[in-house]
Amino acid sequence: MSDIRITKVTAVETAPNGSNLIVVRIDTNQPGLYGWGCATFTQRHKAVVTAIEEYMDQLLRGRDALAVNDAWSVMMNSSYWRNGPVLNNAISGCDMALWDIAGKAANMPVWQLWGGKVRQAVPVYRHAGGNDFGRVDETVAAFIEQGYQYLRIQYGGYGGRQSWLNTPEGSPDGAYFDSKKYLRSVPALFEHVRLKFGDDLELCHDVHERLDPVDAVWLAKGSKSTARSSSRTRSLPSRARGLKRSAEPAPHRSPWGSCSTIRWNGSRSSRTAGSISSAVMSRRSAGSLPRASWRHTASPSA
């Protein structure tokens, strides 16, 4: 199939279960050949739609649909101010759609275009959460019955809208976070699940950047006897000097990176932190599927 040209870039707004999701569709001059990509930035979805339809569409129309790396360079470098969650999500959605087109044109899945399998299989985890320990137990038991060994456990959401908060009268509506209550409840949850379901489970927890480094240290110390697997993104990557402090007391993996929007920041912050076990960026944060594959791994003694 020769001379495949981009004819249109469209942002499709969807909201399954109330979550604002953005899908990118790129059409070509070849009948029936188009690609799909994800450009979701849930909290600023309208900004991403504007970036796609007002800028990316104009940039990409008429270009070679198979020159994916060239298209990425044009999308990224055409803006004086680069990176950031809005621009990178827009670029990533287009980048993914172009790789989808490349795979369809070659009649191959994209993972084969990139060189094939690295391993035969990888373990996956499921999210087991609830507003109380009883509900968490039900979810954990159900996933164990289905054969899952890795579980991300959560109690009462990610800190916002907690029922135990005592806010002052007249406080505006919003998501509030009681870090001290959170720091007490998470180790208690790990201990509860470990005692009830045994040592064969691999448990992890996602803090979602809600803790300062000093609180991350406290959490690591409080859960180190029961976590064993990982606690993800304990502190924001912008607090790089605090990352080392938050990782040193933890015998388990402490990956971070989902909030970083500049892939080189990951390398710098990991070197600063030294003992962070891994830094893995999401493809939407990096702005590209291949570029999101960057990974830094350091031993605790690094």
CATH level-1 class of the largest domain: Alpha Beta
Query: How many domains would you count in the coordinates?
Result: 2
What number is the mean pLDDT? 79
Looking at the structure, the CATH topology of the largest domain is TIM Barrel
The secondary structure category is alpha/beta
Distance linking N and C termini: 50 Å
Major sheet size, sense and barrel closure:
4 strands, parallel
C-alpha Rg, in Å?
22 Å
Number of helices: 10
Proportion of residues in helical segments: 25-40%
Q: What is the overall silhouette?
A: globular
Task: Give the CATH superfamily of the largest domain.
Answer: Enolase-like C-terminal domain
Q: What fraction of residues sit in β-strands? A: 15-25%
How many individual β-strands? 9
H-E order: EEEHHHHEHEHEHEHHEHE
Widest sheet, order of strands: 4-5-6-7
Task: Extract low-pLDDT stretches.
Answer: 264-281, 293-302
| CATH architecture annotation name of the largest domain | Alpha-Beta Barrel
Could you characterize what this model shows?
The protein has 302 residues and is an alpha/beta fold. It has two domains: 6-113, Enolase-like, domain 1 (2-Layer Sandwich), CATH 3.30.390; 125-166 and 185-297, Enolase-like C-terminal domain (TIM Barrel, Alpha-Beta Barrel). It contains ten helices and nine strands. It has helices at residues 45-60, 68-77, 85-106, 110-113, 133-145, 179-197, 213-223, 240-247, 263-273, 283-286; strands spanning 6-14, 21-28, 34-38, 125-130, 150-155, 202-206, 228-232, 278-280, 295-297. The protein has a four-stranded parallel beta sheet with strand order 4-5-6-7. A three-stranded antiparallel beta sheet has the order 1-2-3. Strands 8-9 form a two-stranded antiparallel sheet. The N and C termini lie far apart (50 Å). Mean pLDDT is 79; it is low at 264-281 and 293-302.
